[in-house]
């Protein structure tokens, strides 16, 4: 930790400062995908138990964010994008963030275990450990593939939701995991291509910094192609269906076209139009993930009302 992480508080921390530690924007995606994993499972869950489970997953995600901010406070203070976060800004002390992260982790894991089952609680515990230790403390500062391997932490929520309902892991939950896991690199790297990053100054080996933008463009298309296969495969499982496949087909053509266009561009092309294609593809990537999980939820509603149009599905 650098001296930047030990700034003297200039005012008493507010509730909003502590909430910001939990990365609420990331938490939204976690809650949504976990909820879908819970709802598409073939076993029904008592609504109150379901609410408690999603709350625990959200709190666990928040705990991971707090632990990440505690560990990364030194590099957050260096980068313009993160300099106003609670710790480098002096609103919250590092020790407070660590204490909050650990306390929330314990609360979420124990309560999920008591309310549901050991597998769901174990997956949540591993997710927090993976994000806080494997990604934040090791991968992020040691390899340009950090976002690839570390992306697993964000891919576990639907698997946890499925485990809450079924107490098991299945091909359906694994494919939901793989959908997010394979989506994360092209999504993040599309953003990295047009954001003026200061990761280099902070000593973080992001791919755009270590290998350049041309290599990053090749990696984007390399991950997007198998992502299409995973997304379509999910449509032929017990939680898929004709509606999902139609949505997935449209979204994958749209996203693959954007990734292909990025691959074909040069730095000069990007500078000439102010990274228009990269910015557009990044926006498409947001619709892509929410669209797939939203379509899975619609399929679950169809099945619940006996409306599945796929004979023998």
UniProtKB/TrEMBL annotation:
Keyword Zinc assigned: no
NCBIfam families assigned: cyoE_ctaB, PRK04375.1-2
Something else known: Carbon 2 of the heme B porphyrin ring is defined according to the Fischer nomenclature.
Membrane topology per record: Multi-pass membrane protein
TM segment ranges: 26-45, 51-71, 91-113, 119-139, 220-237, 243-263, 284-304
Function of the protein: Converts heme B (protoheme IX) to heme O by substitution of the vinyl group on carbon 2 of heme B porphyrin ring with a hydroxyethyl farnesyl side group.
GO MF entries: protoheme IX farnesyltransferase activity
Official protein name in the record: Protoheme IX farnesyltransferase
Coiled coil segments of this chain: none
Pfam families according to UniProt: UbiA
Keyword annotations from UniProtKB, A to Z: Cell membrane, Heme biosynthesis, Membrane, Transferase, Transmembrane, Transmembrane helix
Reactions performed catalytically: heme b + (2E,6E)-farnesyl diphosphate + H2O = Fe(II)-heme o + diphosphate
Keyword Cell membrane (UniProt): yes
Compartments reported by the entry: Cell membrane
Assembly behavior: Interacts with CtaA.
InterPro entries: Protohaem_IX_farnesylTrfase (IPR006369), UbiA_prenyltransferase (IPR000537), UbiA_prenylTrfase_CS (IPR030470), UbiA_sf (IPR044878)
Catalytic class of the enzyme: transferase
Family statement: Belongs to the UbiA prenyltransferase family. Protoheme IX farnesyltransferase subfamily.
Pathway: Porphyrin-containing compound metabolism; heme O biosynthesis; heme O from protoheme: step 1/1
Entry EC number(s): 2.5.1.141
């Amino acid at each position: 930790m650098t001296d930047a992480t030990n700034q003297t508080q200039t005012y008493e921390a507010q509730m909003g400062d502590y909430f910001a530690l939990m990365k609420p924007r990331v938490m939204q995606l976690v809650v949504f995908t976990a909820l879908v994993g819970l709802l598409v499972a073939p076993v029904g869950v008592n609504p109150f138990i379901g609410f408690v489970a999603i709350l625990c997953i959200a709190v666990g995600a928040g705990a991971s964010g707090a632990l990440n901010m505690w560990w990364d406070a030194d590099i957050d203070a260096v980068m313009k994008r993160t300099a106003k976060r609670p710790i480098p800004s002096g609103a919250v002390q590092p020790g407070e963030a660590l204490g909050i992260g650990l306390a929330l982790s314990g609360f979420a894991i124990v309560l999920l275990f008591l309310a549901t089952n050991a597998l769901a609680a174990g997956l949540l515990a591993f997710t927090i450990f993976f994000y806080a230790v494997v990604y934040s403390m090791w991968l992020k500062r040691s390899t340009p593939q950090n976002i690839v391997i570390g992306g697993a932490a964000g891919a576990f929520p639907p698997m946890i939701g499925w485990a809450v309902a079924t107490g098991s892991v299945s091909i359906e939950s694994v494919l939901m995991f793989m959908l997010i896991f394979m989506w994360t690199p092209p999504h993040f790297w599309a953003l990295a291509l047009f954001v003026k990053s200061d990761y280099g100054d902070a000593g973080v080996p992001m791919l755009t910094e270590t290998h350049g933008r041309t290599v990053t463009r090749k990696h984007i298309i390399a991950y997007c192609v198998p992502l299409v296969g995973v997304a379509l495969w999910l449509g032929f499982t017990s939680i898929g269906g004709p509606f999902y496949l139609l949505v997935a087909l449209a979204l994958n053509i749209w996203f693959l076209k954007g990734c292909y266009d990025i691959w074909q561009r040069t730095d000069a092309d990007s500078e000439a139009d102010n990274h228009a294609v990269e910015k557009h593809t990044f926006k498409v990537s947001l619709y892509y993930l929410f669209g797939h999980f939203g379509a899975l939820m619609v399929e679950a509603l169809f099945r619940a009302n006996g409306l599945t149009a796929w004979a023998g599905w």
